[in-house]
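dude i think i finally got it to work??
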Amino acid sequence: MSNQTTVTVFILQGFSEHPEYRMLLFCCFLSLYCVALTGNILIIIAISFNPGLHMPMYFFLFNLASIDIMCTSSVMPKALEGLLSQKNSISFGGCMAQLYFLTWSTSSELLLLTVMAYDRYVAICHPLHYNTMMSKALCSVLAAGVWTLCAFNSAINTGLMVRLTFCGPNVIAHFFCEIPPLLHLSCSSTYVNNVMTTLADAFYGGFDFLMTIVSYGFIISSILKMRTSAGKQKAFSTCSSHLIVVCMYHMAVFYAYISPVSSYSAEKSKVAGVLYSMVSPTLNPLIYTLRNKEVKAALRRVFLCFRN
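look at this
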């Protein structure tokens, strides 16, 4: 199979089929991007400069905020440019770079949410052993494992995409470079790509999601056994924000990546793409801060420092 590609530039279709909504979408997406960047950067600053938040739960939240910044920043600048221009082109190398960072961030967030579910399981089901079971060394290993494993997964999928031959057409039916629409454009065999994508789907959509569900099964069972209503309320408050994020993110990513390539729908995939690359990174900081007294107190101290 030839390693050379005929197509050197792709055209991102974006939302060109709805030109009347371009400025409205531009304003909405720009607002989402600004809120996402501001919210996640504030969380990173608040956790970094407040010793009281140097705990496993907030360490993972720090990593989640970093992943959200990478995810939305790999997509939004090009998407905004496309809404302002008549023809939004992206080089082959630029497309592969976008694909790499997007796949890295989305898979990292799925795996990190599972790690955070385990953290909540230990905190609620084994509170007396929490500090021992969730030691600083273990948290560092888990976070490093998430970043490394998902970077490796992304490198494999991107490398397999680079080896494909693209000989036209070159219009990607999306507003960013994603695996399913790119496979549709290939004029060489995508069998190996489909196998690797299926394996990744089985891990992130099967094993990974199952571990999250099992963790929350134990958490809910433990909460229901609590005798005091105050204890139940505190426990539900501790994990409810994380459960909201898990449900919202998994549904969007599952729809975009778990569905077969043959049944790919550009319109529905764009909606799913907006949800996991724009809406989720925007809502995550709001969900975690509005429902968390410690983070809100830390943010107030950050704002006071800026004022002084």
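The chain is about 75% helix and 5% strand.
im so relieved honestly
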